[in-house]
Amino acid sequence: MQNMPGREADRLDCLHALGILFSEPSEPFDRVCELVLAQFGVTGAFISFIDTSTQWFKARIGIDLPGTRRDIAFCAHTIMSDEVFVIEDAQTDERFAGNPLVLGKPRIRFYAGAPLVYAPGLGIGSVCAIDQRPRSFSVAERKMLASYAAIVVSQLRLMSAVRLLRRGFEDQARLENEVAMLNRAAR
User: Angle formed by the axes of helices 27-40 and 139-186, to 10°?
Assistant: First the structure.
């Protein structure tokens, strides 16, 4: 399923509702990056989220940037489909050959990104593997990267459910306090 341009507002609403942008580092996301790095033997791995004009890295290894502009982000292409997006050699790909991330640090030659599809057609970010040398990426490797993306989406859903439960408990406690105050006032 392709992300439709008319769904951008829905995609951004979904992303913002998660409250993930610019949040503190999180061990589960860091571990996914460690697994991607070890699994594929690449020089970098990251989990990114694509906002209106920026790409923000929730977790990263092998890349010093906290994020990039959306217009130069490989991941901005990744979120346009539910499929793994692969660039085997960015220097020979006309879409990326002049990209500052290819020409300068981190000198991306290879890129593979699995979209974080939170709802059908709503890719909010990606799990990515990058390398400073060109390489191929097999069907099995694409499936594995997609599995890591599914783990990240599951973690996002869990975080969202926990946040809703906390709000429910806070609301319950507030109501109980109000009832107790009313009962005391009625005496």
Answer: 180
CA distance 73 to 44: 15
Indicate if the alpha-carbon torsion angle 123, 124, 129, 133 is positive or negative: positive
pLDDT tens digits, one per residue of 90-116: 999 999 999 999 999 999 999 999 999
Q: What is the pTM of this model?
A: 0.84
Tell me the C-alpha distance between 160 and 119, whole Å. Answer: 14
CA separation for the pair 45, 36 (Å, rounded): 6
* Cα gap 47→29, rounded to integer Å: 7
Phi, psi dihedrals of residue 90, rounded to the nearest 5°: -65, -30
Q: Which of 88, 86, 99 is nearest to 128 (CA)?
A: 86
| 10-39 tens-digit pLDDT | 999 988 998 888 888 889 999 999 999 999
Report how far residue 3's alpha carbon sits from residue 10's, in angstroms, rounded to the nearest whole number.
10
Q: Choose among 154, 8, 153: nearest CA to 80.
A: 8
